[in-house]
Amino acid sequence: MEALCHEAIDADLRVSRFPLETLAVTIGRAEADSGVARTIARICRSDIVVVDGIGLPPVSHETAEAFYRLVDAAYERGGLAVTSDIHPSGFDAIMPETVATATVDRLMHRVHMVETGGESRRLAKALAGKGREGNRPLDVIG
Fold this sequence. Notes:
This protein has helices at residues 2-10, 20-32, 36-44, 61-74, 97-108, 121-127; strands at residues 15-19, 48-54, 80-84. The chain is of the alpha/beta class. The relative contact order is 0.12.
C-alpha cells in the first residue's frame, strides 16, 4: 500500500494515510472541538484515503466509531483503501459487532479486494539481520 501511495503522489494525487489509531485520535480531537464532520470532510477531499493496520489487537469503541464515520463518509466516493491483517468478515472479533457490521457493509459494496499471502518480508529481513538498522545482528529476548 505504501508503494501505491507513492505512485499516487507521483501522479499528483492527494493522499491521506492514517494508521487506525492515529485516525481515531484525529477524529477524537475534532469531536472535542465539535468539528468531526469538518475534519472528515477535509480527509475525504484527498483523492485516496488509506487506513492502515486494522487487525490485532482489538480496538476501542471510539476507534471503531471513528473508522466507521470515515468509511461512511467516503462510501461510494471511491479512493478508500484499507489494509488489514484479518479478512473483513472477522472485524466483529476486533470491534463492536454493530459497528463492524455497518463498516464492513459499506467497505464490501463495490470493493476491489486484494488478498496477499506468504512470508512477511519485514520479519524475514529482521531475522536475517537486515532490518531498519542495516546489518546489525538481531537480539531476540524471550
